[in-house]
Design a protein that fits this description.
Layout lengths: L7 H8 L2 H4 L4 E4 L6 H14 L4 E5 H14 L2 H10 L2 E7 L6 H14 L4 E6 L6 H5 L2 H8 L2
Helix pairs in contact: 4-5, 5-6
């Protein structure tokens, strides 16, 4: 497989943060080691310098945090904080199949943010395999906007 090529003009356009002002989201998909996480954090850093609130979470650790928050009563507060953040970076999506709790968590996060705030998701898994990872076609349809 040929090495990934970064479209410099596209990256510079994204660094202008207009997509965040317009409440769009971004998927960074590709094999391990091509710099998806680095690009997501660079865009997050630029957004922060443009006075946007930014939060970065590795998705597996965020699911663990949400499970703990559910147990100690902080769950609504954590979800509210995620919903209010101008740019939420969800790094390292997949390839493990989500359990019921994780599916509900992801759905809550995405629905709270849809057309209200911007999200970057990085993944090694092609989008056409996400239905298998989500594991529930109804929720997968809702998450994919279908």
């Amino acid at each position: 497989m040929p090495p990934a090529v970064l479209d410099r003009n596209l990256f510079l356009k994204l660094a202008g943060c207009d997509w965040i002002r317009q409440r769009h989201s971004l998927l960074l998909i590709g094999p391990a080691g091509v710099g998806k996480s680095w690009l997501a954090r660079a865009l997050g850093h630029k957004a922060y310098r443009e006075d946007f609130s930014v939060a970065y979470h590795r998705l597996p650790r965020l699911f663990a945090t949400l499970a703990l928050a559910r147990g100690d009563g902080r769950y609504p507060k954590v979800l509210k904080a995620l919903a209010r953040t101008d740019l939420l970076i969800l790094d390292d999506w997949g390839p493990e199949k989500l359990n019921d709790e994780q599916r509900r968590d992801l759905l809550e996060i995405i629905e709270d943010r849809y057309e209200k705030r911007s999200t970057i998701v990085t993944s090694q898994v092609p989008v056409d395999h996400w239905y298998d990872m989500i594991g529930n076609p109804t929720i997968a349809d809702r998450l994919s906007g279908r």
